[in-house]
Design a protein that fits this description.
- The longest helix is centred in the C-terminal third of the chain and has 20 residues.
- The protein is globular and about 65 Å long.
- With 346 residues, it is of the alpha+beta class.
- It contains 8 helices and 17 strands.
- It has 2 domains: 238 residues, Zn peptidases (Aminopeptidase, 3-Layer(aba) Sandwich); 88 residues, Peptidase M42, domain 2 (Elongation Factor Tu (Ef-tu), domain 3), CATH 2.40.30.40.
- The strands form 3 sheets. The protein has an 8-stranded mixed β-sheet with strand order 1-2-12-3-13-16-14-15, with helices on both faces.
- α1 packs across α4 and α6 crosses α8.
């Protein structure tokens, strides 16, 4: 894992439909590779599609994919006292954002997510989880007119989450989902590939897997590998299958989730690569969630799909946590798959 690059990617702000800064960084890095002009395209939706020649022509058309967007909040109303009402861009729990520092609008104005104080809540409301629509964002203004000079409806509220190492082997940052996958794709692009390969940095995953289907319809891959971050619930009070996957146990190879039944031969191949090369791996113990595989699988003529994910605590919250060793395991598997997907009987 290129730790510094992952830090940089995570600190960029780019929610669904607003991925401009992430796309600009990715295009700048790709430009350094001096690929042929027709090897890189940005489609109408904002997906970055890259074709990289390898040492040999591909025997199968393979697409490697990661999404560029992150979850965030969007301003929907300005109250008379100057605070902001908002809604979610992607799936976010209200409990995860109360009291969090945020950055608002193009000028990244400092704000904090507030809620009604407990002494103003009804007895019944005190026993229920907070509702997102009961929260507000305070940017320190005192009136609607003052706020309107700084913020407009439709502006984005991003979480503040400086990427930092902590503990023996951990990284915390916002937007690990899915800047981690973007980092893997960039590392692969910088390498000498054994076979021609297509890369897709796609948009709007968090609001319905929109960009990936568009990308797959254009590239028409036979096989697609999605690099992601997936929920690890290895926390106090969680046991057995409820833990889903765990930090420190390696790359997560999925057999099924809430959107996709993964190709069995591809799943078996990834597991065998890990076991033959001493790459730590695990699978998910719950069928839940989903990723761009659900859209890619059924786009155009259809594709066989595989997902390789880094286990990640506190997904879709202001700060997520991964282990560097797990990230390294995902990257080793990614490099091994480039050759295996072309050379193995599948």
């Amino acid at each position: 894992m290129n730790r510094q690059e992952l830090n940089t990617l995570c600190e960029l702000c780019g929610t669904s439909g607003r991925e401009h800064a992430v796309r600009a960084y990715i295009l700048d890095e790709i430009a350094k590779l001096r690929l042929p002009e027709d090897a890189v395209t940005v489609d109408r939706l904002g997906n970055v599609l890259v074709h990289k020649k390898g040492a040999s022509a591909a025997k199968r058309k393979v697409m490697l994919s990661a999404h560029t967007d992150e979850v965030a909040l969007m301003v929907t109303y300005i109250h008379e006292d100057g605070t902001l009402a908002f809604d979610t861009v992607g799936g976010i729990s209200a409990a995860a954002v109360i009291g969090r520092q945020v950055q608002v609008g193009k000028d990244r104005i400092c704000g904090v997510i507030g809620c009604k104080p407990v002494h103003l809540l009804s007895k019944d409301a005190r026993t229920k989880p907070a509702d997102m629509h009961s929260l507000f964002c305070d940017i320190g203004t005192g009136s609607k007119a003052e706020t309107e000079q700084l913020v407009r409806l439709g502006d984005i509220i991003y979480f503040c989450g400086d990427a930092q190492d902590f503990g023996n082997d951990s990284l915390k940052a916002k937007a690990i989902d899915d800047r981690f996958g973007c980092e893997i794709l960039l590392e692969l692009l910088r390498s000498d590939l054994p076979y021609d390969t297509d890369f897709a940095f796609v948009v709007q995953e968090e609001v319905g897997l929109r960009g990936a289907g568009v990308a797959a319809a254009q590239l028409d891959p036979e096989i697609a590998v999605i690099f992601e971050a997936t929920t690890a619930a290895d926390i106090a009070g969680s046991s057995g299958s409820d833990r889903c996957c765990e930090l420190g146990r390696g790359a997560v190879i999925s057999y099924m989730d809430g959107r996709t039944v993964y190709d069995k031969a591809l799943y078996d191949l990834a597991v065998r690569i890990c076991e033959e090369n001493s790459i730590p791996w695990q699978t998910k113990t719950k069928i839940a969630g989903g990723n761009d595989a659900g859209s890619i699988q059924s786009a155009g003529r259809g594709a066989r799909v595989l997902a390789v994910s880094v286990p990640c605590r506190y997904l879709h919250s202001p700060l997520s946590v991964i282990r560097r060793a797990d990230a390294d395991a995902c990257e080793k598997l990614a490099f091994a798959l480039i050759s295996a997907l072309q050379e193995e009987a599948l």
